[in-house]
Write a structure and sequence with these properties.
- The chain has about 90 residues and is mostly helical.
- About 30% of the residues lie in helices and about 0% in strands.
- It is elongated.
């Protein structure tokens, strides 16, 4: 057996590995903070911009994020666009 690897065998092994990983399920990066948390996958082709998913996410994760405190600091460099402060 030869110690060299051909381009064809390299690509074949890469495609085989990608297929094996895809069939194994979700990647480890899809795990959430806890052992029983997973990401939420949305089909954007079916989105009608009702923002129900955003509302549900805020409701479920409200205890995980601190409330922002105002006033917001001045941005550097200064821009012509006024910063929108939605904290109140």
């Amino acid at each position: 057996m030869s110690n060299t690897i051909s381009r064809r065998s390299f690509l074949k092994a890469g495609i085989w590995t990608a297929g094996a990983m895809a069939s194994a399920g979700l990647p480890a990066s899809a795990l959430g903070a806890g052992p029983n948390e997973w990401c939420t996958m949305l089909d954007l082709r079916k989105c009608i911009a009702c923002e129900a998913c955003v509302e549900a996410c805020r409701e479920v994760n409200a205890d995980k994020f601190p409330q922002p405190k105002g006033p917001m600091p001045e941005m550097v460099p200064k821009s012509r666009v006024k910063i929108a402060d939605w904290s109140s």
